[in-house]
Design brief:
With 322 residues, the protein is an alpha/beta fold. The chain is built from 12 helices and 10 strands. 40% of the residues lie in helices and 13% in strands.
Length: 322
């Protein structure tokens, strides 16, 4: 098993066909315990690199900065040039009225912190973590352009929860008019049941040659196959404790898609999680889904999705099931 290198949109940069997401690193649960501490984080990164992985995704707010520190400590023992590292800015990082959003003061302070925690002098990709309606797009696009010009950032991306294609297009039109660096990467939620980006958003990405790197490829665990229509969610799962998850995911239409994923999984001898990731890897509009994991064993299982081949008919059955 080995992850292939694929082009990141029009950037010319090559990344692994499955990215590794670090959103669990350093995160505290309700009891105040860290979900993935430093040692396990490094073991996960080792497992990813051993599989040929080179595309690491993090953010300044993951684990209140601990995720970036864990990644930085791990990178210190490796050749930085071997890895493509992406991080994000927007959310509060300090108790200050200007300590959030995309205003110039916060962006500059945040990038300084990101590079310090990662122990590097540049980022391969810097995403805005959300759109900021309080800051003019021309202001933050100019500031982001400065980061690229001074060599601290190579490429710019937009990570979004709401698929507002027009906002990314607006920012790129401002960049075109003013001669700024545009967004060349997008990170929307996309999987076999969350399909809101289909249509205008993906069309915008195609038109602007923006590479798509989806988050939540397993729909918060729904697409792993742990849930069954008409049965109570297994104890300890999000479906058993989170009513919002139940309302969002445990629906008849979503189970239709899940059951098609499970049927294809049985045909190809893979797990539902692997087929869900493979479906995105086979998608013409997708560069690389972002896969996270709690254990190295789980991560290795997910990364095996890169070796799962789907026929056009199997791909279309999943696409048409939602």
């Amino acid at each position: 098993m080995g992850l292939d290198a694929v082009p990141l949109g029009r950037t010319g940069l090559k990344v692994s066909e499955v990215a590794f997401g670090t959103w669990r690193f350093g995160r505290e649960n309700d009891a105040g315990d860290v979900e993935v501490g430093r040692d396990r984080a490094h073991a996960l990164l080792d497992a990813y690199a051993d599989a040929g992985g080179r595309f690491v995704d993090t953010a300044d707010m993951y684990g209140s900065g601990r995720a970036e520190r864990y990644v930085g400590e791990w990178l210190a023992d490796r050749d930085r040039e071997d890895f493509v590292v992406a991080s994000k800015v927007y959310w509060p990082t300090r108790d200050d009225p200007n300590g959030r959003g995309l205003n110039r003061k916060h962006l500059r302070h945040s990038l300084d912190g990101i590079l310090d925690r990662l122990g590097t002098d540049y980022l391969d990709v810097l995403y805005i973590h959300r759109w900021d309606d309080d800051t003019p797009a021309r202001e933050f696009m100019r500031t982001l352009d400065e980061f690229v010009r001074d060599g601290r950032v190579h490429y710019l991306g937009a990570s979004t929860f709401e698929p507002n294609a027009w906002k990314v297009a607006k920012a790129n039109e401002i960049a075109r008019r003013e001669g700024y660096e545009p967004f060349t990467v997008a990170q929307p939620r996309y999987n076999a049941v969350n399909r809101e980006v289909e249509g205008n958003y993906l069309e915008m990405c195609r038109d602007y040659d923006v590479g798509v790197v989806p988050w939540s490829p397993l729909a918060g665990g729904f697409l792993t196959g742990k849930y069954t229509r008409g049965e109570d969610p297994p104890e300890g799962t999000r479906g058993a404790t989170d009513q919002q998850f139940v309302d969002s995911y445990l629906t008849p239409r979503n189970f239709d898609a899940l059951e098609e994923v499970e049927a294809v999984a049985a045909e190809v001898g893979a797990s539902p999680a692997q087929v869900s990731l493979a479906w995105l890897c086979h998608h013409d509009d997708v560069v690389a889904p972002i896969s996270g994991a709690r254990t190295p064993e789980q991560l290795r299982e997910n990364l095996a999705a890169a070796d799962v081949s789907l026929t056009d008919g199997q791909f279309d059955r999943i696409a048409d099931a939602k």
